[in-house]
Specification:
The chain is of the alpha+beta class. The protein has one domain. 17% of the residues lie in helices and 42% in strands. It has a 5-stranded antiparallel sheet, covered by helices on one side. About 19% of the residues have low confidence.
Amino acid sequence: MRRFLVLLLCSLAINVLAEDIYLLRAPQTGNAGAASNSGAASNSGAATWVDNFTVPNEVAALHAPLHFTLEGTRLRFSRLSNLRFQLRQEGVVASTAAGEVVHYNITFANVPALPVPTRRVRVTIPLTSLNLQDPQADSPSLLAMKNAIRSLGYPSGQVWIESITLRDQREFVVMVAIRRD
């Protein structure tokens, strides 16, 4: 019985993961609250779901292994699993000419066991490189992932974000894990 409880606790620890995610958005006016990806409204009551639009599934998925293929300059991603997540906290951590950088603390449930990476790449993304006009450049996680894959030149494999931090309100330091096929 004791062994069963230990195994159960270990599996629960593996299946729940909290992460930091950053995303550029247009400057918001008024009182924005927290919401989950289920579409629940904020505590303010006046704010709508659109006002509190949270992290797109595509951005959240960067923190679990994705399969990638690199053919010349074309980079493709595909999800290996579906993630359930809940937004725990939201706050604007920096402002640029392009918009506001929002920090989300997200808890993921049912995260698959992470593979052992072939390489880990530390990527620095300047705050100024984020751009709302380019849907590929509103997330420092996505930019870091692309830079890491292209720098290694692996034709295919799995990739995920291990950590991301905002340093000195100027740049993101992102640890990208890659497993080559």
